[in-house]
Amino acid sequence: MTAGPGAGDALFDNEDLAVDLPPEESAQNAGVVDVAALDPALADPDAVAEAVAPQREIRVDEGEALLRTEGLTVKFGGLVALDDVSFEIRRGEILGLIGPNGAGKTTCFNAITGVYKPSGGTVTFDGRPLAKTKRNEITRLGIARTFQNIRLFGEMTALENVVVGTDARHRTSVPGAIFRTARHRREERDAVERGMALLEFVGIAPRAVEKARNLSYGDQRRLEIARALATEPKLLCLDEPAAGFNPSEKAALMDLIRKIRDDGFTVLLIEHDMRLVMGVTDRIVVLEFGRKIADDVPAAIRENPAVIAAYLGVPDDEPA
Ligand SMILES: Nc1ncnc2c1ncn2[C@@H]1O[C@H](COP(=O)(O)OP(=O)(O)OP(=O)(O)O)[C@@H](O)[C@H]1O
Ligand SMILES: [Mg+2]
After folding, report:
1. Residues in domain ABC transporter (predicted)?
2. Predicted TM-score of the model (pTM)
């Protein structure tokens, strides 16, 4: 991360500001951080974007399939939540995954990220089959996600929540962590620097030392995205990131998702809001009752009779 002369080292050189503030102290300090005073580099959007950009090697070329599902099937007892679903996510694109409630969107995320073991089919990520790959290993391979219901460490500060995400990637041994070796201190400082840059990137750096549970709902959603980005994912999966947002918050979120893609990430987006999905995605996969019913560019999806029928759904006089 080269962010102008000396900027890399300047970010958060003061270790006293690091993550291990005791809870009482962080509560007292809770308030607004003047980001530019903390480090001038954080006031420069280009420097921030540079610090956030993924450094990781990706095997597939731009535009090739980064992730591919083939015949992906997930069953819960008698219920087929995902039924023989094949699609691909190309590197560098924003792919929308839509469908009515219960269509299988979150299940698809869960199958991709190793939460559920598929009953059938395969998932290939960056040239590698994910069968039998454990959840934390999938994170390390480069798939990160946010959750439909926000999951944050409420008693930790915003910055600490992001640094926890960074930890998934930097591995100091336990003895190293206990004795606070030079390497561990350096890793910790890097994580804090990157954490601050990520908070700035998603637009909540001034709230860095606020406890996550005290953040506004919208800021919590942004914090979840920052935490997912902290794992340096090749693929970022967002499960209804705009749920509960008003129109201006939705517009701001669309800008953020575009910025994330422009910074070199590939994005899989589950979203109910059609305007948002149509406005931000390159391609859309539509699920209904666990099956894929369409896979096309937004303009074609909008006109697709099967999609329109799925959304207009059951006539009002019939029970859903
Ligand atoms: N752990 C589970 N055990 C049993 N059934 C489940 C489980 N998870 C999901 N399902 C069922 O699988 C189907 C698909 O659910 P899923 O959560 O994937 O839908 P979705 O498209 O994300 O819907 P929504 O838009 O409401 O979030 C639903 O019928 C749901 O009830
Ligand atoms: Mg869902």
Report:
1. 67-314
2. 0.84
